Sequence to fold (647 residues):
Amino acid sequence: MKDSAAVDQSNSSRRAAGVVFGLLLPILIVNIIAFVVPVLNLAAMSFRSATAIGSLDEALTLSTWQSLLGDTFYWSILWRTVWMGALITAVTLLLSYPLALFVSRRSGWVKTVLVVACISPLLISAVVRTYGWMVILGNQGFLPALIRASGFTPPRLINNEFGVLVGMTEILMPYMILSLLSGFGRLDPILDQAAETLGARPLTVLRRIVLPLSLPGILLGCLLCFVLAVSSFITPKMLAGGRVSLLATEIYDQAIVTLNWPLAACLSVFILFVFGAALLAYGQLSKIVD
Amino acid sequence: MYLKVESLEKRYGHLVPVSGLSFSLGQGELLGLLGPSGCGKTTTLRMISGLIHATSGKIIVGGHDVTHLPTYRRNMGVMFQSYALFPHMTIAENVAFGLEMRKLSKADIAQRVSSALSMVRLPALGNRKPLQLSGGQQQRVALARALVIEPDILLLDEPLSNLDAKLRDEMRNEIREIQQRLRMTTVFVTHDQTEAMAICDRIVVMNRGKLEQIGTPHEIYERPSTPMVADFVGRINRIRCRWRDDGAIAFGHTAIGAVSTGPAGSEVLVMVRPHRIELRSAGAKAGRAEGENTIPGTVRQVTYIGDSLQYAVESEGEKIMVEQATTSAGDTYKPGDAVTLNWRARDTLTFAAEADV
Ligand SMILES: Nc1ncnc2c1ncn2[C@@H]1O[C@H](COP(=O)(O)OP(=O)(O)OP(=O)(O)O)[C@@H](O)[C@H]1O
Ligand SMILES: [Mg+2]
Fold:
């Protein structure tokens, strides 16, 4: 009796494991074909070198890596990419946090409408939205015209880091808001009220209760936005006008314009290390937060 | 009067959880807020603490109108029904929070936190997080957190609902003891009448957002002003009858005497508590005392619940519950026994039949 029960149990747990594996299989296959293989391919390509006409040399070589790592130009691009990514993420967080907090404190249809409003920009392609910013910030654009009309000389708002910052922040805000909202789970308004009855003023409540409890959401949003900021190239390309080179735009240039695929592959692997570092930092920080 | 609530009202659209509520407490008084679930107890407490705004009415503390004062300036210790402990802080940090807001020194805080935790019998758990505690333990931490700031007014929302019977009694007496030692003006919300009776100086019984009666536990129990109160504060029989023209109440072939009288022929709701009725064998000729009701009946059902016996007795077509303390003698009645029900006229509570809801 006992034995057969044990067998039954191990059978059923084996069956459960089989079901789980079966359910995971499709996404596993898609991931291997669409992600793992191309990345390995890319890594392999970074050990080739390009001939002058853009075709690949058969021989394996470290020369591309050597020229990349030895060139301060690429290190400065890396630095600028990380710095811009961090800046964009920080500004996005600052602008999104109050919004997300406000939305999370509504209820019923008001909340639904607000959530939809926050993420509706995602319905419009990033290219179109970036064009919108070019119209607003461009030299003959709306904002400079307004500044001129009020008797000042407008500073350059586009084709520089400022333009990229503005465009990217607006593009990334919906992602940040969504992450924050999902991370506000532990944030019960009754905790604010408890703090208030204990004598905490609204700002103290924000600092001691609301902020610490929303850290998981903040971390998640920051990771997501940082990775998206570092990897996006359409918006930086359009708003930087070729004056701000970032890793992603450089990869695009090397692959499409210069046709130096090995170098593009090298840079792509390089950028993967940045993501890896970001993930590592996220893992460490969320461990501390818990 | 230290805390005064004047015609307090709260509306949510068409919903009126609290209306026309007025009561007051003296300094150091423990007032119970008693009523069925959903009658507006929590809503009232939240208005007093300022967490929600009263639609109309006034809250006065020590002569000052605090109706529009923000919560953080009211110095009221609140214990929430759902505890509301800060999940990211340890137990000690939770209890220390209010003291930090009052800018006490570190040493002072540590000392008061540890004495508060031993007061609620949790001296060793200071370093745990709230989610690592049982429901009852969390409840006691919430109590410590509200007490430790020595507030002007202590507001407790069902502070003992999650404790086992023994701990509940202990904590109840503990709260009473602390409250009296610190002379803390306290509003104690509960839907448990025994709890309210045991420790409150006075009790407000609420029903559907309105005040039903306010009085000492004794007044509430012995002289309930409405059938709802009589029903809520203890088991009770209810019988619908009519007044006779001699001032007694017609009950089938016999009559029930009460202290009050009513217009002859009008309907009356008679209520008698089961344990105030005494059972005697039908034959026994016990000396009938002046002002005592004697009604014949037949035992239909006997339920033994340890410290008492519950009899369902049929009399004049009505079912009347009788409760008697058990004795070791074991002299009990059996179903089918003919008995008489005896109780004093002053234990007959009468209400106009319209008051019954
Ligand atoms: N924010 C709100 N919006 C609408 N209705 C509410 C709101 N808060 C409470 N109510 C309603 O007000 C009534 C009283 O609620 P309250 O929480 O004060 O009851 P209670 O006496 O504390 O009950 P319990 O003993 O179950 O805790 C309930 O019917 C409730 O549904
Ligand atoms: Mg309640």
Notes: Residues B 12, 15, 17, 35, 37-43, 81, 191 surround adenosine-5'-triphosphate (ligand 1) (CB under 6 Å). Chain B is about 25% helix and 35% strand. The radius of gyration of chain B is 25 Å. The helical segments of chain B are 41-49, 91-101, 106-119, 135-147, 165-181, 193-199, 217-222, 227-232.
